[in-house]
Fold each of these.
Amino acid sequence: MAHEHHIPSARFMTIILGLLLTATALTVYTALKIDLGQVGNLIIALLIAAFKAALVVGFFMHLHWDNRFNACVLLYCLIAAGTFLLFTTIDMTSRGAVDPWRAVTTPPPLVDNARERAIADGRLDEHGNPVDEHAEDHGHSAESDGTDHGADHGADENVSH
Amino acid sequence: MTTIPAHDNENAGAANWERYRHQPHWRNNQDEYDAAKFGMWLFLSTELLLFSGMFVAYTIFRIMHTETWGNASHHYLDWRIGAINTVVLLISSWTMVMAIRSAQVNHQRALRFHLVVTILCGLFFLGAKVGFEYLPKLAKGEVPGSAFDYIGSHGYVPSDYDPLFLGLYWVATAIHGSHVLIGVGLLTWCLLRAGKKHFGPKHFTALENVGLFWHLVDLIWIFLFPLLYLVG
Amino acid sequence: MTTTTAHDNGHHGHHDVSYLKPKGGALVTIWDWMTTIDHKKIGVMYLFATLLAFFVGGVFALLVRAELLFPTVTNAAGDVTGQIFDPSTYNRLFTLHGAVMVFLFIIPSTPAALGNFLLPLMIGAKDVAFPRLNLLSWYVYVFGSVVALIAIGLSGVDTGWTFYTPYSTSTEGEHWQVVFMTLGVFILGFSSIFTGMNFVVTVHKLRAPGMGWFDMPLFVWAIYATAIIQVLATPVLGVTVLLLTLERVFQIGFFDPALGGDPVLYQHFFWFYSHPAVYIMILPGMGIMSELVGVHARKKIFGYRAVAFSSMGIAAISFIVWGHHLFTSEGELVSAIFSFLTFLVAIPSAIKVFNWVATLYKGSIAINTPMCYALAFLFTFSIGGLTGIYLGALAVDLHLHDTYFIVAHFHYVMMGGAVIAFLGGIHHWWPKMFGKMYDERAGLLGFTLVFIGFNLTFFPQFLMGANGMPRRYATYVADYEPFHQASTIGSWILLAGFLVHLGAFIHSLVAGKPAPANPWGGLSLEWEAESPPIEHNFAHEPVIHHGPYDFDDVVPPHCDPADYPLPEPIESDSVAPGKHAH
């Protein structure tokens, strides 16, 4: 039975690893240094990710040498997931085309709540700007990696300087 | 995995993997191996579909709140931690492949060595995740829902939908992280069995299937990393 | 569990005794059952567990119907009449009825109980592919049920079985009930996935030598299609209820528009699983139908391949129609697409119905309990299926949405289809499972009561629904009173029918006649095993010599040939009038 298993060479697998690492570097580089717009960058990132995924599935997971039925399982699974994504996205992008009320969303309160809490316990002043007091040490501001130091010069400094 | 006791078998002196006998309802070892692997692929497809829910949610919310997604991912998440973790997981995938290869060619020492490295990589991933991301975020209030208590820094003012982005980040990475944790557990089990020479050229079903699971964990991260940390 | 066996004469060796034969004293036997990896014992345990769930869900249903016997009226003086339960209790009752029936009974009933018992027997295997995973799935089922029962114990949930947001995320004072209920559903999902994986691999890898894909009984095809749906759809239910639990506990906001989320997204998530799940419920019933019609009409099944492929077709189409549950909430474009796709499901379903009817034509139809249930299925499932077409039509659905028309439609499919087939299947395979015959007259009496009770309960609901009676209300205006009262009286007749069946089964276990190996003259492999089967199913690995429905040219094994004479040979050039070419 053992003769039926494909035993890949170590060298081949190391080359695959090299490709994967290179592709990772490429993803980071294109995302941070090349601006193709939010959608353009997304497409590039997904293409590279799909390439990496194909390498992992095909060679690390041995699917290239494996029983074709296992590949069918993966294919059916991807079709099901794709269907899920496709129809939900069609709904989300076209809802409200006839009846505008279907597309209405209401503004969220969580961020405002957080700011109100911060104003109430003195982490922000009454205008919502940072204050320079660190004496209270809430455990929230103490951890914030120097973020509040920017406001050290005075409470009047605007948040978005 | 049934192991025939030594006194039952004429190969009493042989290594454990040589004495492996299939369960009684199978016709031979090969059928059992194929079935186990087929079952594993079915299970992996359920895992992919579980994560597909997270990717659908990501797509929908990105369409609804495109601007928030672009800003929040760069502000809340440090791509360097994500990139290091990606590299670590890719390397661990390679060592997993090498572990199975070592079993196939009966290099027991190499098998154990590669499994240990794989486990260490998994632990590193979890450590980096918790130490550099989860704990600081908890401390700063960068959490989803009513616990959101972040007021901005470095001139960044949280937008209306930041808690939702953080919700997606936390849930997706936590589900993924729990899979890493389960994977580390399974690898440890494999390591213990490898110590008893359960895996060799004629029998490595469990090792192969744990390997498949571990690659799946890697596979999910290959998509989560750019989507959450890079392009937003 | 019964402790008697019909075949005490087969003591050839340790493995040649009936699987029901106790291993020792009571404790030893219980331990043996608790730790068994025998698919037959696990199937029987599933059968009892799901029947228990059916009883619990049925009690909730009877309470719901009891409340609706009279409308709740508050007169000028403030006196309330006609009320048994207050509205919030009523909400809990219908929620629990739905949740228990769907997740605890109907999804595991046929695949996990009958499927587990029969699948390996039918394909000539000793067990399922992963016996220990099978036992695990049983324990996961029990554990998930217990978690869900905790929710019921904590006064229950009133969200409806679909757990729609915002009911499920914001109703006051039911925090932990909802959490336990959804976690229970999450756990039950794993049980379903394990069963599905097991069956897919079993069908692929463990068929007896000589059994090709098209030599399998059609029940196996149906179970295979069901298992594929279980594997591909259930994980999405898992992530849905997981997100719902997190939403409830941490308010993450995925489904809350006030936090930037979208409640309709929840409905997409939920129905991406739950629509295919409807086929998890009905497909095994269709598989049972094929067996009942073929064996009890003693006819080769008409269009074997068409029936087999229609099972796979239903499995495939089931994934692209979920949006028809959302016609009133989702976008207009996608509603139109889903409405079109929904009609496609009618094609494979109709293929099956036509083929069963064609099989009956000139068959030698035995009027016994299994066959009566098969005929009832044809009647009720056709009504259920055709009213589904009304509901799939976008414009009509906007009128009928959330009315009793929907309630009647899915009860005609789920109960008139899945449960009636399940009852027929239990009667059909009861002699095989327990080695005892049931009393045919009691079976027919039970069938008559169930059939009348079922139609009396649910047919008036079509009329009410078309006239606008909304579902899930604890009261109604006086115009609907006759319909509701007929429906409630029908539910009592149904109860009587089930009690007759229960009595007949208990009588059979205690004092039934020993069953022969092949009481119906079936040709599929399970009838070649003993009744009840020996521990490893077959003394020798079976080899396939004939198809499962070759009634025209094979004398069934283990049968008296005098009872089953071969038909007159037909000259090839002179086709007898009305004789089908297969």
Amino acid sequence: MTVNLSKGQAISLEKAAGGTLSAVRMGLGWQAAARRGLFGRRSKEIDLDASAVLFAEGQPVDVVFFQHLRSDDGSVTHTGDNLVGGAGQGGDDEAILVDLQRVPVHIDQIVFTVNSFTGQTFAEVENAFCRLLDENTATELARYTLTGGGSYTAQIMAKVHRQGGGWSMTAIGAPAEGRTFQDLMPAIAQHL
Amino acid sequence: MTAELVRGQNHALPGTDLTVRVEAALPVLAGMTLADADGRGREGWLVHGDALSLPGLLAPGRPAPAHDLRVDLARLPEGARTVRVWLALPSAGPASFAAAGAPRVVVGEAAGAARLAHTLGGLAAESAVTAVEFYRRAGAWKVRAVGQGYAGGLAALCADHGLPDAATLARRVLASSAAGTRESAPPPQEEPAPQPGRVDYRHPGRAGRVGPAVDVTHPGRPARPEPRPSSGEPAAPPPPVAGDASGWSMEERLHNQVWGMFEDLARAVAAYRGAVSFADDRLEREIDGVLADPRTRTGPAADRARERARSRQGELIARARAALDRDLDQLTAEAAVVEPALPPAFARWDNPVWHGYRVPEQAPLALRLGDLSLPERIGLRIPMLVRLPLERGLWIDAGRGDGPATTVLDGGELRREAGLLATAVAGRLLAVHPPGRFTVRVIDPAGSAAHTLRPLVDSGVLAEPPARGAAGVAAVLERLTERVDLVQMAVRSGAADALPPGLDTSEQLLVVHDFPHGFDDRAVTRLRYLADEGPSVGVHLLMVADREDAAAYGPLLDPLWRSLLRITPVPDDHIADPWVRQVWTYEPPHVPPGSAILPQVLGALAAARARLGGR
């Protein structure tokens, strides 16, 4: 079941996942900039970045992004920075895996964000999407189409948070502006 | 006594009259195939039930969660050189071993107590698997843990074992077992089809069929629990298996597994420490909040607020500790299976593998340089493996550091321990390399390390006696410098065959005692050259030194010390991991006191060298 969300829509996915979530993956994909002319490599590359910020009671305590690919506790892993994008046909160009069972006990929220590092707005990037999957069942929990999402360079995508003994997810989809996750911190704070 | 075999491992058999016990979580089929000296099967070389039998080999023909197979290796048919034991899933069962759990095979002598066990971990889409094989090597029968699965099922397995007409054979085996209860299984078409709706009064043990397979469980007891559904509650972690990592060889898999354990321990403890420090900070914040407000500073409300803050802190720390204990228990269980499976280069000196020491045929991937542990669980020790050839030299610090243990020993004892450690490390490096491929030279200018060098000197594994005095130091350093220079030139110009004849191209280790005694400025410069340039062309340095002794050089030698990997003769906290930079307690790989293992191993090496030299 895929929830196709428009911006600003927030839903709890605890029940939709058919039980408690134990591992989730955030995927980000986009189409590489077209290569034209003799010196095609000089075409303006598009670099989108996926990040995950770990919060404990509203305090950011760790972050996973292209310069810190694994959280110190090992529970959140980034598969690696992609600087140019791919075919944008549904495959993830960057992914962040969260092993919820191993997340330290004091972490209660994990926020996923997307930034345009090279500065193109989502209006200029073709076939850009981000999605959240239940890693165990490979079912898509939520998907956002970023392309056509207006002239923004960042999006606060979703958060997973502790609820009872397990985890649930809230899709946020709030547009923002910024080059890396640091620029988004004030905007993220509104959604904790 | 049961010895656990890891995949690919072989072991001598206790005898030739064997029982093979097969255990699985669900009913499985078990049988054997034979192969000749070329590894090919022949017509009729598959044993399963009474219909397919051979002298000396016995396998039941029905699916069951446990089987006892008999193998008498003395009665094999003419030409048979290998017996392979296979397991397969019956056609009525699950489609793959992923749902059947890890089966286990225990091999024992029919009349003896010694057992060899192998757990078939890591099976997924396979529906047939070669579990173990018995084969003849140099006149003796041995067993090898194979664990090769086949997604193509029994037909693919039979084809791989070289049996003629594999597909038909496999169909026949599966059909006969699906036919159910009878010990002897004729082809299924002979079976009269049961009438639907009719009660079958025939005895299930004699003839006919009562269902797709025999139900061996007690009628009053529930059957084995169903495998857990993949969603929902997290399943208990599977029992750890040695070699459970990626790699081309068992050695590489174990190396990667050890490094994986190292990283997991670092991160599990980082998670715990992060949670504890957060809980402490929060307690401080909350108590500050109570104190900051004059209305709540005193009185019962304040006490209650403090109490609440403290209990919140305690509760968070307790949860963090529970998560940590879960992870540490898993890693401790993993260490308990990995440690005994390690090859000599990775094993502690007290590992039995050293008692069965054989001169290796190729250099190992890495070397154990000690143990690492964290205070959260002292007993959980991770082997510290460094890749070979060494990328940087080693420095055994004979100085009094600031560690707690160094205050117990006086300077002389510390030096002695450092000397013993240097001998153990040099001896281990010699022992894990093929004879003649690794050479150790020793500089001992004042002869102060003569006693600790005894195992190396007495066994005759050193290239030459330890160099004494300033002249000896200069001579050794000059030769090694020349070697490094020549090999570098040859490498740069791509002319390896132009090296002068007689140049020793084996890997070299220079052990330096008593630095800087006996070193003049020229010798110090040469030593630094060796430390910088040597590792890339196979010349390594092992310094046993107290930095204080070289204090007269001032900061000039700091780059030298920094370029070496520092290890200590007593446990010390100075090694940081590459992931979260936690400080680990390092324990040196000392030979256990009173153990004669090092002279014994070096003696075996010297004997092998003598044999090679005499050929």
